[in-house]
Amino acid sequence: MCSAKNQRLRHRRSNGNIPIEPESRYGRDNMSIRDLPEELDDEGYKEKHRRFVMSPQNSWLRYYDDKLAKGGNKAVKAVFFFACFFLAYLLVQSAHQSDCSYQSGCKNRSSVTDFTYGTILAGRNSDKAYTNLDRISFKSVEKSRDSNIKGLRVCIFTAEFAGIFPSGGIGYVLSELAQLLASEKAQVTIAYLGSGKLHETTTKDLENKGVSFVKLPEPDIPIAPGHVSLVGSYKALLYLMNEENQFDIVHFNDYLGHAIYPLYAKRQGWLLDKTKVVVTLHGTTMWSRLANKQLPHTIDDISVSWIEREAISTADVVWAPSKFIATSLLSEGVELPENVVVLKNAPPTLEHISNKHRELYGRRIEKSTSVINEIVFFGRLEMRKGPLLLIEALEQLSKKHRSMMKHIKVSFLGRDTPVDEWNPSYKEKIRQDFLSSKNLKNVNLSFLDNFDRDQAISYISDPHRLIVIPSLTENLPGTVYESIEFGANFIAADVGGIKEMIHPDDADRCLFKPLPLSLASKLHEKIVETHKDIKPVRHSETPASIRSDIIAFHKQIHQQSSQNSFRRRKSNPKITVCMTHYNRPKGLLTTLKEWKKQTYSNYEVIVVDDESPEEAQKELDETVVPFIHKSGWKLLKV
Questions:
Q1: I need a surface site. Which of 85, 119, 171, 443 has the fewest CB within 10 A?
Q2: Whole-model pTM above 0.85?
Q3: Residue 400: beta bridge partners?
Q4: Tell me: the pLDDT tens digits for 194-231?
Q5: Which pLDDT tens digit goes with each residue over 140-163?
Q6: What whole-number distance in Å separates Cα of residue 237 and Cα of residue 504?
Q7: Chain centroid to CA 108: how far?
Q8: What CA–CA distance (Å, rounded) separates 9 from 17?
Q9: Which sign, positive or negative, has the C-alpha torsion 561, 564, 566, 568?
Q10: Contact criterion met (CB below 8 Å) for 531 and 371
């Protein structure tokens, strides 16, 4: 119970005789609760506070905040704040390391933006990226003795193709696929959706191998002018509507979503009834944008992303070159269809090696204590391919081994791309980074951004060159395929689907974590390596086995009947026809009678009258409404 003195004091306060002083968090002014006078502690605030701050569910900081508020031990206070400072320092360093691991431009970065970017890539490349595997219904390729695809009609739609651009992963992958299928006597057509031109020599060479190349014309009517997805998709639709162009299997890329119009036509039941539509996951535009630290800039960018997702979800079959790309897209909100097949891309063949490369390919490594005299970055010059990661690793290497870098040349082998709308060249950014670095400004630097594939293969196959593929995220990069197939001495970042490409016993020798220090350590290991230590890296699956699986895959989906297709559709969907009407009752009645003559029965008609005049309303009620009710349709009046 409260004392009489305390009650009188509270009564005087409530009457305003004693002004109530402003109170702090714990008591009056700057007083701690532990210093609260007994006469004001009539309800046991001190004991309640002690139990509150000491309870496990509350922060330990509250207890020490109160304990050190006044008159606390100075030594305890100093230790406490030092511990807090050290903990904050560790957190900042952790964030800094995560940022540098994936962005690598640690000297000129916006910490919040880059840490978020690094977190996205870290999530993609961690083991958790494969936790969505159980959500995907993977279909295995059934091998059989009879994998004959002779006469199979295959069309490959693409806006990229080898020979039109000096480099480009999708173009070369599809070129290999076309030639592989044609070698098995399939009738293969490349339907080119882009604006480039293939050299006549290359066209004739394809024809000799059984591949027909067709450049699709621009549509006669304007279809979303300038929209990269819809214009190409409409070209494909017009081509497939031609009765002469009948195919058993058609291939589309997920990139740009060119399959959208043909797939909608198939879903509506008036096209591709006996054709299987395969969409291959190379990486959507949004997937690439996130990896390159970019966001959509225009409405078209957003619409392209939606179109790509819709094309993937409505495909008959989704071909995923790696498990990583399938789970990665799924975790980013892309809906996958019922049938997903994980099957590696067709590997490159020795037929594409030039005479000059054949000499290099068969040459033995000369005996030397150090065989490496050049470090070659291999890949497009863009952020997700990791050029900044390599620069930071070289800086770390030159700090520890300054004399080693004096005799090593650094080359960047890959097509130049713009950094952003203000910086048109990544090559110039890399050059400036070298010049601004105290440890790298004197390095012998060169850029090989105009090589075609044949020249690039010849260059990477020299045993005195160490090929570096420091990608921050990847699907199934052709650079790794070519490095393995043509015996290059290479190292690659352990990200994305790269590990799925390499034999498990060889992974430790050629893979590194996407961290500057890890790459620097691997570079040093390879530079001091002697010729006796160098061993070729093997495929996780032999190229012959991959090619055999691709042939069996096409045989398998061709044999699927329409009843047992990968994606079943309703054979008799209900269709709703919506019509608006204003002051035309006679014309409306004529139109409705024509609709009644449809042979398709599972449909309904909804008519909306938009405040027609009274005379028209009377005629509508007398003639049209009875017909609508008799037909089981609806009339709505606004």
A1: 85
A2: no
A3: none
A4: 888 888 888 888 889 999 999 999 888 777 777 889 99
A5: 666 665 668 888 999 999 998 887
A6: 44
A7: 25
A8: 10
A9: positive
A10: yes
